[in-house]
Amino acid sequence: MRFGRWLSRSRRSSSLSSRKARVSPKKLPAAAKVHRTGRTRSKKGKGRASGILKTLAGPVGLVALGLALVLGAGYWAQRAPASKQVPAPVKQAAPSPVVSPQPAPTPAPAAPPTAQPPVTPPKPVPAKPDPNQAILEGRHHIDRAAGAKATMTLTLYYADGLKNGEALQPVEVRVAQSRSSIQSVVEQVINAPADLKLYSSVPAGTKVKSVNLTAGGVAVVDLSAEVAQVRGSAATENIVASLVYSLTELKGVNSVQLWVNGHPAMLDQYEWSKSRSRADMGARNVFTMQPVIKFTAKP
């Protein structure tokens, strides 16, 4: 700014001095010469300034003037307060849409339960009665005492018809008290309770002729000739097993010898030539043995 004012003043003084130079000099007195000398000196100074101005007005001056302007602008730019920098706008992400909570749907009122007709439970199907139940029950009440006041209980062995005759079923039988337990046993074996499917396979009509117990514990049984009419190995084995197991239940009897009319029995090619014990029956392994059915009086 100051530089511009200085430049304009210099140009004005240059134009004035050029105008004065054009005026022709007049003869002046000596005093005036002195003054003129001073003015001449001043003119010389002004001439120098005019030369500077001319130089500045030339190409070199213009370059210098431009350089001065640039430097001045830089100077004033440094002194000028820094302009506030406006921060570039920051791009913000678009806000996510706010989802307002939706109220839970009100459940529809439940329909009142429809009255159901009462369900009638199915009637239990009665179990079919076991046709053998009466037989099995009757085996617990075999009472052959015929109302006798004095009784005894014998354990007798019969072939079980419910097991196809392949098993021996021991049962307790109540009988009248007798002096000979051996004869009572033989009579009960001969007359097996067939109504309860218990068998001894002794032919009908067979009679007990005599019984005897030796000192060695052998029960000798003599039967009538009807017993020799038995046929078949199963029936023969049934007679032998029923007599041996039933008689050896008695105290003091160890084995059994069967005779027919006073001679060793011959039962369908089975020769009963010597006494037979329980061990002999077990070795033959013909029958399976069932548990003993205990006697109970009927209520």
Explain how this protein is built.
By secondary structure, the protein is an alpha/beta fold. The protein folds into 2 domains: 2-21 and 31-74, no CATH class; 142-289, no CATH class. 36% of the residues lie in helices and 17% in strands. It is built from 7 helices and 12 strands. The chain has helices at residues 2-22, 30-57, 59-79, 133-138, 181-190, 233-247, 278-284, and strands at residues 143-144, 151-160, 167-176, 198-199, 208-213, 218-223, 255-260, 263-264, 266-267, 270-271, 276-277, 288-289. The strands form 3 sheets. Strands 1, 2, 3, 4 and 12 form a 5-stranded mixed β-sheet that branches. The radius of gyration is 79 Å and the shape is rod-shaped. The two termini are 151 Å apart. Residues 20-35 have low confidence and may be disordered.
Quote the average pLDDT: 80
Between the first and last Cα atoms, what is the distance in angstroms?
Answer: 151 Å
Percent of residues in beta strands: 15-25%
Q: What low-confidence regions span 5 or more consecutive residues with pLDDT below 50? A: 20-35
The counted number of beta strands is 12
Shape descriptor: rod-shaped
Element-by-element helix/strand order = HHHHEEEHEEEHEEEEEHE
Count of all domains: 2
Count the DSSP helices. Answer: 7
Largest sheet: 5 strands, mixed
Helix content: 25-40%
